[in-house]
Structure prediction request, 366 residues.
Amino acid sequence: MERQYFAQLDDNNVVTHVAVVQREFLEANPQRYTGRWVETFFDTKGKTYAGIGFTYDEVSEDFVAPVSPEIESEV
Amino acid sequence: MPNRRELGYVSAGSTSTIVATTGYGVATGGTSSSITVGGVNYTLLTFTTDGTLTVTSAGLFDVLLVGGGGGAGNGSSAGVTGAGGGAGAVIGIAATTTIYLSANQTIDVGAGGSGGAVSSGVAGTVGLESTIGSLISASGGGFGGGSGGKDGGNGGSGGGAGAQTSHDSGKSVNELFGNNGGLSVANTGCGGGGGYSSAGGNGSSTVGGSGGNGVDISAFLGQSANTTLAAAGGGGGATGTGGAAGTGGVAGKTSGASNNGVNAGCGGGGNQGSAAGGNGAAGVVYVRFKV
Prediction:
């Protein structure tokens, strides 16, 4: 069975959790998977696999990684 | 029903020997198969995604859990590298771990962490834990450090240190279940992620640290040796030569498509800043009972 991955979003579209779960199981268990969930792809070209803290962009339908707030001086 | 502490078991923080006089139980869930281990027949339930363990007859169950692997870090630009992700913890391989169950259990399979994005300078994200209800859990692997101010993350095994000597490597939350990540000496060769069987290697000026070795879990599954490997750390990214792959793991890279973890609980491979760090692989949960 091929794995599917879903990311849980908060009100600001920021990822709070990532689950390894089949769509049918997720949809059949709303008490377990509360809130909003969007599928993310682990190994698909052109798609960013979601991590906690990433932001979901509804226009591109993809996840955007945070950028380091401070790039240290590099030797 | 006895609780987990009465059974002498707590999750990833301790060993897990349970002495009981009761026999094995019966359950369904996941993908079921029949296996033979040491001449004894078992039913093996494999959960590669979240599910429910339905206990149809109370009793003992042998379990093996692997947490999700950590994502690799990334550099802020070309020529700046990211560290390898740490492996998820493995519970139930050093010694058979047996738990008593009399009720259904939720099974959560830990997702792997995400690798740092191109030229972001950020660390990867931590792998997530695999759990059987609230009874037992295997921690996810620590993230690999990025160049922009991140040490490697702690986890089942620690992630490698991000670029520059000022960054520390991630540590294993419990050395029974994983090892530490490796260090970096410059921004051109990052540390490897820790694996179940060994620590991640240190990076050098142009070579990434090797990923820590994973573990052979085939015996639990009734397979020939080295059929199923898990929980290796990812190799560190570098400008010259990517860190070597640990047993069962993936190497670090110098450019191009990321090396994502391939076996359960393995950390992603680091990369140079012009390309993304590797994603950590998801974990797995096995439950078996004698038939």
